[in-house]
Each structure stands twice: as C-alpha cells, then as structure tokens.
Amino acid sequence: MDNIHSPQKRFIRLPEVMEKIGLRRTRIYTLMEEGDFPKCVKLGKKPKDPNAFDCRRVAWLEKEVDQWMDSRLEERTTS
C-alpha cells in the first residue's frame, strides 16, 4: 500500500484528546452523547466468559478530532 496516497489513521487516547481540545473528560463524553463530538472506538472485545478480563479501553481517531476542531473554527468565522 502506498502511504503517500492513503491518509494515515491514528488512535489517540483520552489524555491526548483532552490536551488537544482543552476540554475535560466529562464534557467530552457529554458532547459525544449529544452527538456533537466524534464517538470513541472500543479497542478491546467483550469477553465471552463473564469472569474474563474485560478490556474497556477506548480511543478516538485523530482525524475525526481534527475535523471537529476545524468545524469549531468554521463556526467562529461564520458567526
């Protein structure tokens, strides 16, 4: 696959999202629930065995977070 012509995808975890956009965890999840912020991606699978370790790690696609930031800037310039 040619990396020059295909955009790179990168997951970023919550601390990096918070640092990047300047919002706290609670506000990010509230915006997600309201449909105003990109949804997170679950990185682990739910185990079939209820006694097994359940990976609840989530991340966001950096590109989607960047697009959300761009949309905030567009709103600012059109207001």
From TrEMBL:
<protein>
    <recommendedName>
        <fullName>AlpA family phage regulatory protein</fullName>
    </recommendedName>
</protein>
<dbReference type="Pfam" id="PF05930">
    <property type="entry name" value="Phage_AlpA"/>
</dbReference>
<dbReference type="InterPro" id="IPR010260">
    <property type="entry name" value="AlpA"/>
</dbReference>
<dbReference type="InterPro" id="IPR052931">
    <property type="entry name" value="Prophage_regulatory_activator"/>
</dbReference>
